[in-house]
Amino acid sequence: MRDPVNIYMCLFPILVLALSSFVFPMILEAIDPMQKTVLKITMLLLLVVILALGSFFLAAMATFLLLEHKDEHTLNTIAVTPVGTSGYLKFKMAYIYFMSVVGIIVILLETKLIAGEKYTVWGVSLFDNIGIFHMVSFAMINGIITPALGLLQGAFAKNKVEGFAFIKGTGILALIPALMILEAFQGGMQYVLGIFPNFWAIRGMLLELMPMENGANLSYPLYLLIGGVYNLILLIVAYRLFLKKAQY
Predict the structure, then answer these.
(1) DSSP states along 102-151
(2) Which of 31, 151, 186, 217 can bridge 242 by disulfide, Cβ–Cβ 3.0-4.6 Å?
(3) Which CB contacts under 8 angstroms, 24+ apart, belong to 214-220?
(4) How many domains are there within the chain?
């Protein structure tokens, strides 16, 4: 509670929930229901924003948290304590991951309860296609991106100014999965986007929300399995890189 960044982290689900439950439904209501193609594309875009925004917002907060230690040279002090720099980072990243997972679950669950009927295509609410299992599993996999991205940005940025520049750049990358709405990325070409770590979990969840028949699609568990392995590798690399940059 003594760190304002931690308080901002607690507020992020409320911000995204306000968008998903009140702002986005107004956008959907402004579209003529007869324009089903436009409605479907718009809804896919908004769903990508809902699924991607939370973890990247928290990653930005994590980056500023780490860069504050860099600017104030407190990591050298932590290094000589019994916990050590690595232990401190593990603790920080663990609770940031936990907050990310809880935040994503809250956003998805409350959006379904408050405005689920607003996300309707052809008379069917998309949120009726997912349950608590999908929400929790998606949150656990997609939440790994938060500490991984925070560590990567914190490793390469020398100060908060550079960190802000990195955050702006990765913020654009957060919405790369939105390209999945294009016909070119519906088949096997969708895996070109797999280089982006948030593609796998988001793709799996989108196919659960809005099923699309295509022989190139994988099952929901397989999308999450690949995404989980990829994100864990990225997290380990980011963790080691940050330690190297911070200590040497």
Answers:
(1) HHHHHHHHHHHHHHGGGSEETTEEGGGG--HHHHHHHHHHHTTHHHHHHH
(2) 151
(3) 214/186, 214/187, 215/187, 216/186, 216/187, 216/188, 216/190, 216/191, 217/190, 220/134
(4) 1
**Domain span at 168:** 4-247
Q: Which amino acid is residue 118, in one-letter code?
A: K
Cα 235 to Cα 197: distance, rounded to the nearest angstrom: 11
Low-confidence ranges of the chain (pLDDT < 50): 248
**In sequence order, which ranges of the chain are alpha helices (DSSP H)?**
4-18, 24-29, 36-72, 75-79, 84-115, 132-142, 145-156, 160-173, 199-209, 220-247
State the CB neighbour count (10 A cutoff) for residue 84: 13
- Cα angle, residue 177 at apex, residues 65 and 241 outer, rounded to 5°: 35
Tokens of 68: 């504050």
Strand partners, 125: 120
Pairing of strands 120-121, 124-125: antiparallel
Please give the pLDDT value at position 248. 43
Rounded CA-CA distance 71/48 in Å is 34
Quick check: 200 and 230 in contact, CB under 8 A?
yes
Residue 124: beta bridge partners?
Answer: 121
Instruction: Output the six-digit token pair for 20.
Output: 């998903």
